[in-house]
């Protein structure tokens, strides 16, 4: 696996100062009106609405830094945001224990996300928050979710089970003393035979909801079969989550094609060890992401990422059939500007 090959966009000091100052003002105003309501989804929505109203007034330089993903592979890393490790406090042991920890970084990430599109939340994940905390949690070491550590988090499309999944995935790093690598593999680099693309474009297997969603797995609807790959004028796109795809149900030829795709994604995968202040932006239709295994200490110094999901208004690059999927009863929430 290549190391650190993700293209970088450096934020200059003027840009980071503007983002931090704007975030601090928004947070102060919000806290003034909603003291002690950090766990109230309605309060989160109001804060996000304020963020969406503030974002257009940011400088051209900041807008430029958040321009659409224009790299061949469909990803980049924004660099240069300040993170004060001491002021941050200990890494929480579970997302639900995060409270308002790192709230300023939440708002900075939301400002960046609001410049890229419309940040979205899930009613059924992390209490409907717009910014998720990704921290290793005791008892989840071997899960295929962001709370894991000891196991390889296999490459996947974020929220692949759902037709309203993000177009862009944004991962902001607050702490990563051990330089644990996030992995990213672009379908644009994968060498795929036409016959495999054709076969994997047929909707033959479902992608089941992942373990982070409360309630989704109890949904009574028949899991819809979905395409793994599809062609667009601009090359192939993918929707891929092997850990939640019942591959054993597929015919041998389909299974073999899926495995060749998996091998290719492993071959082109790059390791991106995010440093504090780095913000990794991935096109969720082009790039699958994962994480290498690591040993969690649970002593307040573990790796800590913040995550947002972004919908890009007007993007029409997904198979039309997706619109009829039930999404296992899971719904996204978007805050109005
Ligand atoms: Fe993920």
UniProtKB/TrEMBL annotation:
GO terms for biological process: antibiotic biosynthetic process. Belongs to the clavaminate synthase family. Keywords: Antibiotic biosynthesis, Iron, Metal-binding, Oxidoreductase. It comes from Streptomyces ruber. Residues 142-308 form the TauD/TfdA-like domain. The keyword Cell inner membrane does not apply. The keyword Oxidoreductase applies. InterPro entries: AlphaKG_dependent_hydroxylases, Clavaminate_syn-like, TauD-like_sf, TauD/TfdA-like. Its cofactor is Fe(2+). Fe cation binds at residues 156, 158, 289. Residues 319-328 have a biased composition (Basic and acidic residues). GO terms for molecular function: iron ion binding; oxidoreductase activity. This is L-asparagine oxygenase. Coiled coil: none annotated. SUPFAM superfamilies: Clavaminate synthase-like (SSF51197). 2-oxoglutarate binds at residues 182, 303, 307. Residues 315-337 are annotated as: Disordered. The gene is asnO.
């Amino acid at each position: 696996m290549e190391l650190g090959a993700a293209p970088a966009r450096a934020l200059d000091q003027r840009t980071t100062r503007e983002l931090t100052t704007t975030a601090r003002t928004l947070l102060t105003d919000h806290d003034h009106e909603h003291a002690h309501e950090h766990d109230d989804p309605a309060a989160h929505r109001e804060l996000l609405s304020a963020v969406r109203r503030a974002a257009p007034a940011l400088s051209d330089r900041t807008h430029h830094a958040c321009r659409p993903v224009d790299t061949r592979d469909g990803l980049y890393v924004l660099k240069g945001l300040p993170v004060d490790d001491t002021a941050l406090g200990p890494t929480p042991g579970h997302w639900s224990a995060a409270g308002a920890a790192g709230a300023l970084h939440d708002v900075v990430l939301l400002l960046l996300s609001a410049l890229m599109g419309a940040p979205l939340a899930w009613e059924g994940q992390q209490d409907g928050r717009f910014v998720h905390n990704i921290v290793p949690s005791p008892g989840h070491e071997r899960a295929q979710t962001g709370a894991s550590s000891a196991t390889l988090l296999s490459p996947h499309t974020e929220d692949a089970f759902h037709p309203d999944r993000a177009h862009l995935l944004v991962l902001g790093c607050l702490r990563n003393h051990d330089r644990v690598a996030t992995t990213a593999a672009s379908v644009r680099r994968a060498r795929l035979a036409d016959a495999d693309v054709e076969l994997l474009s047929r909707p033959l297997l479902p992608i089941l909801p992942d373990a982070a969603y409360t309630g989704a797995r109890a949904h009574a609807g028949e899991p819809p079969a979905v395409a793994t790959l599809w062609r667009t004028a601009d090359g192939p796109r993918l929707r891929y989550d092997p850990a939640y795809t019942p591959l054993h149900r597929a015919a041998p030829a389909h299974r073999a094609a899926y495995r060749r795709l998996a091998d290719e994604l492993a071959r082109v995968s790059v390791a991106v060890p995010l440093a504090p202040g780095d913000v990794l932006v991935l096109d969720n239709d082009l790039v699958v992401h994962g994480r290498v295994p690591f040993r969690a200490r649970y002593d307040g110094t573990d790796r800590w990422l913040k995550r947002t999901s972004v919908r890009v208004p007007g993007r029409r690059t997904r198979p039309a059939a997706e619109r009829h999927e039930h999404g296992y009863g899971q719904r996204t929430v978007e805050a109005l500007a």
